[in-house]
Design goal:
- The protein is mostly beta strands and 344 residues long.
- It contains one helix and 32 strands.
- Helices cover 3% and strands 48% of the residues.
- It has a 16-stranded mixed β-sheet that branches. A 14-stranded mixed β-sheet has the order 27-28-29-25-23-19-16-13-10-8-6-4-2-32, with no helix packed on it.
- The radius of gyration is 21 Å and the shape is elongated.
- It comes from Metschnikowia bicuspidata var. bicuspidata NRRL YB-4993.
- It is found in: Secreted, Cell wall.
- This is Hyphally-regulated cell wall protein N-terminal domain-containing protein.
């Protein structure tokens, strides 16, 4: 069998003795109430499940061909920390404490690259106020071509951090040509977003797009779709008082009273118009600037409404969105279940 570059690099690092490896070759379920530390994890095309460990820590390389599941059946915490050189997932990764009575946190931090071409599920029962329970960051590169689900079962929306962690003097950029799905989750995006994927803003969720922060301007690919899936979905545009050039933002599902929000006051929005043939909603803001949203055709201009919000002002559309969301906005809400031979 021909090895991929990442798998070959993993095997070379093991042969050089960089770390003691942990290779899973058969379906395995570990049930333990102790903490776990794993170095250089390689999961072959099998299922590997860790159940009821309060904290699981991965270091070195993490390479998933099959499935990696971390969950709790005792209603307690089951947090995950991945501090690795590289994280590569071609299969399925699920961190699930949706039924737990205690909050968990899931951190994926890589020094080199984060690559997901498979499916990743992050689910918690609730979050402690003021914390960020979901973090997926990488120093050198961040690339998602698969599906990533972030789910908070109850309480206030939990925060998620998705970014290229490059420090204070450079701009972060993440590449998303897959789907990122948020449910009862809030993402304050301080990063450029490249490629042609979809970010689904599900029920109880919000995305705050910071187009500028301090001296940095962030770019948003005009092919990236922000899908307002529910009637309470919110897309907030921030940084409009800057001198940055604002990108065209592609939005699907705008309607049924979900909102596009701005962090400027009502009097700073001079006007808006809808171009029926081009499917563009143009909002003119301060300093004669404008933000263009590609929302699709079929909207009725008299059904748009601009009004005050808690952060500034917002625009909504009363009827349902006239268009169906694109295929790349598909999200799976059913988390994988534990399967395989049991080891105690």
């Amino acid at each position: 069998m021909k090895l991929s570059y990442s798998e070959a690099a993993f095997k070379i690092s093991i042969c050089l003795g960089i770390a003691s490896s942990f290779i899973v070759r058969s379906n395995t379920v570990e049930i333990t109430t102790g903490e776990k530390l794993l170095e250089d994890l390689l999961v072959k095309r099998v299922n590997y499940s860790i159940v009821n460990s309060p904290r699981v820590h991965f270091v070195g390389h993490v390479y998933i061909l099959g499935s990696l599941l971390v969950s709790s059946t005792n209603n307690l915490e089951a947090s995950v920390r991945i501090n690795s050189d590289e994280f590569t997932n071609y299969g399925t990764v699920a961190f699930n404490t949706i039924q737990s009575d205690f909050p968990s946190t899931y951190y994926v931090n890589t020094h080199d690259s984060f690559i997901n071409t498979g499916s990743m599920f992050f689910g918690i029962s609730g979050a402690t106020s003021g914390t960020i329970p979901f973090r997926v960051t990488s120093v050198k590169s961040w690339n998602n071509t698969g599906m990533m689900i972030f789910w908070t079962a109850s309480g206030e929306s939990a925060q998620v951090l998705l970014a290229q962690d490059v420090g204070h003097n450079d701009s972060s950029i993440i590449k998303n040509s897959g789907s990122i799905c948020l449910y009862n989750t809030m993402w304050q995006a301080t990063t450029s977003i490249a490629e042609n994927g979809c970010i689904t803003i599900g029920t109880g969720s919000a995305v705050i797009l910071n187009l500028a922060l301090n001296s940095h301007c962030f770019s948003i690919s005009k092919m990236q779709t922000f899908y307002l899936e529910g009637p309470d979905s919110v897309l907030t545009i921030s940084g409009l008082n800057s001198s940055c050039t604002f990108p065209m933002i592609k939005v699907a599902g705008f309607g049924n009273e979900n909102v596009i929000e701005f962090d400027i006051w009502h009097h700073d929005v001079s006007s808006y118009e809808y171009l029926t043939t081009r499917g563009e909603l143009i909002v003119k803001v301060v300093k004669e600037s404008k933000v263009v949203f590609h929302i699709g055709t079929g909207y009725l201009e008299q059904s748009f409404r601009l009004r005050l919000s808690t952060t500034g002002c917002k625009i909504s559309y009363s009827p349902h969105a006239p268009n169906i969301p694109p295929y790349e906005c598909s999200c799976q809400s059913v988390f994988p279940e534990v399967s395989g031979a049991t080891c105690f």
